[in-house]
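pasting for ref. prot 1 ->
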Amino acid sequence: MAGIYIHIPFCKQACSYCDFHFSTKLTNKQKVLGAIEKELELRANYIGEELVETVYLGGGTPSLLNQAELQSLFDKIHARFDVSEKAEITLEANPDDLTLEKLQELKKTPINRLSIGVQSFFEEDLRFMNRAHNSSEALQSIDNAQKLGFENISIDLIFGSQTTTNEMWQKNLDTFFALGINHLSAYSLTIEEKTALAHQVAKGKISTIDDEKNYAQYLMLQEAIEQHGFEQYELSNYCKNKSYSKHNTSYWQSKKYLGVGPSAHSFDGVSRQWNVRNNSLYLKAIENGTSYFEKEELSEIDRYHEYLITSLRTVSYTHLTLPTIYSV
């Protein structure tokens, strides 16, 4: 079993905390999408004859793509790879993109799971993070998706922000549980280098993160998920009724995955490789047939250490079976 990750490197605007690779200039979007499809062809043998059980469109903001663009990617994947009929097909989406019309289009594609970047249901938080959506759009997008029959939905929430009081965080949690969604990814706000947030903190325009408040909100999260019967199956991921993210779980279980697009990472069981983190350089390399990635061969000990470390992130660490040569 294996997975495919496709990185869509475009966003409407830059969130203040984000250090993922993206561009707000959409002028070369069609060319980059063409290069991504070309890379799918070039690397059709990367995972061998493994059955593809998950496809994940991340970014960036994949929900910027229209139905035709998405379907073209899926057609290319199905033409080159053996995709399970029961494959989990995830689209990361921003709430402002998920209008009723957009979701009706998505229903016509193979997408069967939505990961919605809500982050907060409060305007103060969303403005602070420079998110493109507002609170009402967050709620409406989830309602629209549920009405159209999307049953496998996850949302992201961020705690510990300078603008998020304990009362606001509790309300965010209450709102989430009231929506009847089975999966939550909850992250502590972190200040990543070279982000707008890092520059604001460095210049003294805003305060740094309050560790005590951050920890208090984490404890509130732990208490809430226990009360509502959710399982913490990974450091930042929670679900009910075993609604795990199959794609992300495959990373932690050291399964093979092919990463396509600028900055995407891949793992074939014995090595890792990562694509150049620049749209123009990626596009030029694909067009010219030159190298667009770096590669690292992993020794047996490297692979063992990675397996151990990633397993310790998850609930599966209680069932770890160590390779015989490392038994103690």
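and prot 2 ->
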Amino acid sequence: MGRIRQVNMRFIPLLCAAAGAVLAAGGCGTSQAVDPVARAADVTISSPGYRMSAVMTISGTGTSVTASITGAVDTAADRGTMSLNEVIAGHRVNAAMVFSRLSFYMKSAAIPGAAKLTGGKPWIYIDMSRALAAMGVGSLPGTVDPSQFLDYLNAVGANPTVVGQMSISGVPTTEYRAEIDLDRYAKMFNASAKTVSILESAIGSHTMAMEAWIDSHHRVRRIHVAFPECVAGTKVQFAMTMGISDFGSQPQVQIPPASEVYNLTPLLSSEYANVKLGCGSGS
């Protein structure tokens, strides 16, 4: 169990990133709103691909987690590559990953001692749909890369506020502050009431604040999101800032052959079955 828990901690940032996929029923949709933030989300998601970089932090668990991710997303194929640089309790982990929708593969060499667990296979595979289902939030289409948070921008609950102008890597942008209505998102993407209820219980709200920086071509160049979350009765704070650039076709992603992959899904699903989102009334 100790070895599984150690592996589990290394996937916390990805699980938080994948939390948005819980609501992404039907994948990326097209909003009918003329709202500039929702429009930018549609334009960005509809591009052939892009590169992204993100920094995520989780604090309050007794073990601070910081992760930086760079990668490329092929939106047409719902695939991509990521490089994870993560620090857990002072220990640094570097991992190369490949993802395809809710499946991702990580180089096992990134985890000390993983060779004994995998039998020497170079890749570890996790089916996030099963992991999420084990936590009671269902198995829905989506992706596991941080850029899937773009989907939330389709559910702006009220007119976003213009914060100001800012240049990002030489590109002029307008910063907006938006309030994401999770109930509205559920209706837009036909997410189950149970799934939405669990997520809202976890973050303690029906809304989620986000900032988005949008360029003159109506493309999202940066987003920031931060919210408290309750997992297994423990309150944590999640925050992520993600940059998006290099819009256009990305290199084709190759999925590792089955002979080189160790399936970690059953072990993680068993452990996550005991993880409950949300805090009790006394928390």
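The domain at 2-272 is CATH 2.50.20.20 (outer membrane lipoprotein receptor (LolB), chain A).
The first strand starts at residue 49 and ends at 59.
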